[in-house]
User: What shape does this take?
Amino acid sequence: MSRVRPAFIWLARLAVAAIFLGACVAKIRDPAAFALAVNRYRILPGEFVNLVAIVLPWIELTTGLAVLLAPPRPRAAGAAIIAAMLAVFTIAISLNLARGIEASCGCFSTRADAAVSDGWNLVRNGALIWLALAVYLDAVRRAFPRRAPEAP
Amino acid sequence: MTAGASALRRGDALRLAGAGAALVAVSAVLGIAVNFLRPAATRLPWIGDWSHHVENLAFRAGVPVTFLEGARTRVGATDGVVFDARIPEQYAAGHLPGAINLPLEDVERHLVAHAARLHLDTPILVYCGGADCTDALELAVKLRGLGFTDLTLYPGGYAEWVQYGGATRAGDAP
Assistant: This one.
């Protein structure tokens, strides 16, 4: 068990970081197309769509790097932000599915011919949230170890 | 797995929040700086006016929209009709396979010619030049006013269809 857990955490860090570093590339390359994808969710007021399209991919980049390379404290922060973003993405995709909008999620590709969202996106996000939380809890444990109670 | 989170003391939580704020701040600076350094043609304005985007107009008008995959499915379907809302010259230069030209002017007269194929519940896909035109949306609203009930807008239109390698037909016939 003691050997399995560190290996699992490393794999979780690799998976979460790889997915977020991969996800930010197309969005940084074509912010206008990503802004259209953000607008398509109809969650944000129009005034915030561009700002989110400009900044969000870079949050994905920095948090992905933090989860992969940073010491425990920023790694825990990065994993927490990733889990929170995934929760928001999952709610947004669910809303589009409930509305019957046949749109791509804009997760990895901003192309018009990207695959249309379906229930699989929700399952994948659920698994990623679980992995991000595992990374977060491991990093918190390392960043803030419990102090031993003082001897009387 | 919950021990780590529940054991966080207030000071530790603040330090963690500080690390998170630093990550977000660095991201914001990078995003804003890179956007500022982009060529003007690809730079995104900080605040965009999305209220007049055709997809938002369609949403407010209650007209369903579909995107490239949906359009491909509908163009290949036999139970529906595709209407091209552009002017006849643009239609003749190239249109989606099977699409019928139905410019905004004199819609009723043009519809008569296709009456045999149309019922009020026939699935209808409408498109025009691309995301910058609203003719197809106006056509959809007009058709809804005439009683048609199954209307869908393809906002990407002819421009997106061609950009992604869709087959086209030239001439006056569908």
User: Anything to note?
Assistant: The helical segments of chain B are 3-6, 10-37, 54-61, 68-76, 88-93, 107-113, 135-145, 157-163. Confidence is low (pLDDT under 50) at residues 1-5 of chain B. The CA atoms of residues 98 and 174 of chain B lie 5 Å apart.
